[in-house]
């Protein structure tokens, strides 16, 4: 391919004298200061990329490459494989690593074209900006209809959806010259069967392929293109990373922030589509159906639970901003309607209009960019800010979504771990439900993508189950005399999770006991976080122990009995529907197994025994 007048041909930077001269000048400058420049990876411009684009070096003394990036590059260039999978925790600096590698391959003449594939439109611009700082020119505005891109660029940035729409276009570009393909968050290539096939078709001819992921697993068993799978001792095929840098390692290195999880419980009441009124405590060991209902009720914008949690999160943000003045908060909602309602609540709580980001809204990327560079307190989004989007000043989050897969959870928490200075602490508020508490406790766990699924994998709720519970099926809609409706909710501070340890106990919000934890400093070294939490836990326990006993009268027996009967009847209804049996038969079975008289004459303990039995029955599905 020949270049046109005024244009730079592809690969023109590879091995050019001015680059070598600039590198020699850099070496001389470093030598004058008595510093050995060490091994060289990439161009002069790439050498001056900060370790975690787009922020400057974490605390002003970091080297041009972090240790893990240097190690991964050395490992790559020892063998220069065609395929390389780098799994590094969000916030570690995968973009810098990838661009340094791309720059070096261009310099050596190993490749002449670069294609970056990103999950979202917003990330296309982010990649192009980062590449510009590394001396690599990428076109983020390329469309499939263009067929090719202007020669003054080294390559393009596209989305997985764009590739899936017209894979032959990208295959032609890949074949036209030796190409490096960077697959950002490569697990997205398995989002749909057609996407995986398209990626294989478009980039099968690539000279080099670099796959990146911050979450090297998926919640399903769709294979990820260009990823190697090996069997473990149980015969399960697991993805194999060529280089892995996990959250626990990054935390020890001071590359990412420690994350505190503030869990909130409470009492929830709702009406099912069959007209049954349910009441449950958030976080208790209930069936999945009851957990779904309680969780969904907690997230209702009209209820007291989410309103109180937003108030507590805003108090936490105020404390953080005392030491980190530009610290921001992010609320992630289940859908757009709830996102708008949460924004209204935050406007009243914080006295400031929050930034609202909706994925189908024009200008969403611009709003994210403006928020990232500004000093506003809050941003509210659905899923657009869940992965890959860099807003390093985010320090406080509210997990106000019903999504519960390990993949989504890890992606979302990744928005808060990016460290700008030593001592920053991230705080995420979440419902006290078993699936999220399990994921929070296992934040440091290294996962791989498994093509073979074990039974009861992770003991977690799946997003499909939550969606089904919310939408129901056709039979439900025809038979249901009522619409599912949240009735009432309340919030109580439950506990703090840090690593695999828990601190605190149930207390009312807006009390000194809650403030003990949400008021901890916003700047704190990771090794000091646990010690401080232990001291706060002991102080809270002492206050509660020394408090005068509660003299309030207990609830009347008939109220407690009524609630237990309502719960029993709801479980009977769930079991009866699944089995296609009459309610009376399920009641009779529970009575036969557990003993006792009919429901109307059963004691409190007899009712609870039947509830416990039916929970086991309902969970066996």
From TrEMBL:
PANTHER family on file: HELICASE ATP-BINDING DOMAIN-CONTAINING PROTEIN (PTHR47396:SF2), TYPE I RESTRICTION ENZYME ECOKI R PROTEIN (PTHR47396)
InterPro entries for this protein: AAA+_ATPase, Helicase/UvrB_N, Helicase_ATP-bd, Helicase_Restrict-Modif_Enz, P-loop_NTPase
Residue ranges of domain Helicase ATP-binding in the record: 75-234
GO MF annotation: an example: helicase activity
UniProtKB keywords: ATP-binding, Helicase, Hydrolase, Nucleotide-binding
Keyword field contains Nucleotide-binding: yes
Parts of the chain that traverse the membrane: none
Protein name, as recorded: DEAD/DEAH box helicase
Taxonomic source organism: Agrococcus citreus
SUPFAM superfamilies referenced in this protein's UniProt entry, alphabetically: P-loop containing nucleoside triphosphate hydrolases (SSF52540)
Domain of life: Bacteria
């Amino acid at each position: 391919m020949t270049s046109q007048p005024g244009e730079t041909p592809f690969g023109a930077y590879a091995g050019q004298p001015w680059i070598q001269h600039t590198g020699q000048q850099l070496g001389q400058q470093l030598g004058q200061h008595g510093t050995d420049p060490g091994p060289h990876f990439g161009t002069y411009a790439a050498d001056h990329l900060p370790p975690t684009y787009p922020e400057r070096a974490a605390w002003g003394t970091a080297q041009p490459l972090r240790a893990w990036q240097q190690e991964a590059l050395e490992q790559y260039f020892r063998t220069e494989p065609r395929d390389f999978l780098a799994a590094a925790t969000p916030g570690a600096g995968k973009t810098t690593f990838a661009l340094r590698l791309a720059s070096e391959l261009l310099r050596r003449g190993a490749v002449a074209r670069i294609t970056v594939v990103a999950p979202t439109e917003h990330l296309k611009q982010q990649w192009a900006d980062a590449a510009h700082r590394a001396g690599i020119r990428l076109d983020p505005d390329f469309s499939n209809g263009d067929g090719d891109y202007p020669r003054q660029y080294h390559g393009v940035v596209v989305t997985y959806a764009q590739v899936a729409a017209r894979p032959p276009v990208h295959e032609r570009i890949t074949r036209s010259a030796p190409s490096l393909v960077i697959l950002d968050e490569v697990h997205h290539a398995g989002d749909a069967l057609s996407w995986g096939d398209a990626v294989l078709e478009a980039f099968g001819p690539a000279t080099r392929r670099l796959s990146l992921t911050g979450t090297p697993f998926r919640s399903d068993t769709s294979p990820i293109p260009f990823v190697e799978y090996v069997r473990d001792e149980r015969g399960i095929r697991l993805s194999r990373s060529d280089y892995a840098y996990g959250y626990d390692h990054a935390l020890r290195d001071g590359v990412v922030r420690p994350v505190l999880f503030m869990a909130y419980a409470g009492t929830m009441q709702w009406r099912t589509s069959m007209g049954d009124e349910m009441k449950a405590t958030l976080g208790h060991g209930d069936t999945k159906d009851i957990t779904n209902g309680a969780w969904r009720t907690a997230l209702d914008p009209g209820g007291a639970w989410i309103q109180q949690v937003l108030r507590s999160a805003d108090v936490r943000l105020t404390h953080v901003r005392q030491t980190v003045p530009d610290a921001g908060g992010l609320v992630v909602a289940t859908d757009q309607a709830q996102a708008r309602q949460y924004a209204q609540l935050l406007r009243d709580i914080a006295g400031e209009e929050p930034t609202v980001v909706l994925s189908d809204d024009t200008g969403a990327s611009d709003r994210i960019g403006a928020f990232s560079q500004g000093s506003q307190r809050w941003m509210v989004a659905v899923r657009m800010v869940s992965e890959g989007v860099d807003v390093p000043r985010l320090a406080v989050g509210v997990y106000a979504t019903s999504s519960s897969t390990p993949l989504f959870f890890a992606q979302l928490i990744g928005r808060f771990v990016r460290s700008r200075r030593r001592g920053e602490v991230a705080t995420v508020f979440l419902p006290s439900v078993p699936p999220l508490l399990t994921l929070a406790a296992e934040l440091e766990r290294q996962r791989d993508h498994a093509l073979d699924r074990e039974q009861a994998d992770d003991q977690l709720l799946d997003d499909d189950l939550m969606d089904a519970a919310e939408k129901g099926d056709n039979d439900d809609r025809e038979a249901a005399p009522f619409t599912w409706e949240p009735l009432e909710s309340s919030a109580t501070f439950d506990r703090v999770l840090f690593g695999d340890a828990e601190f605190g106990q149930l207390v009312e919000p807006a009390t000194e006991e809650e403030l003990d934890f949400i008021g901890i400093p916003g700047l704190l070294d990771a090794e000091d976080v646990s010690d401080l939490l232990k001291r706060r836990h002991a102080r809270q326990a002492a206050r509660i122990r020394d408090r005068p006993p509660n003299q309030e009268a207990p609830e009347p027996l008939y109220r407690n009995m009524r609630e237990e009967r309502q719960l029993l009847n709801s479980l009977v209804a769930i079991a009866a529907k699944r089995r296609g049996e009459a309610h009376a038969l399920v009641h009779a079975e529970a009575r036969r197994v557990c003993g006792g008289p009919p429901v109307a004459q059963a004691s409190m303990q007899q009712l609870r025994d039947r509830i416990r039995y039916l929970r086991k029955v309902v969970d066996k599905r």
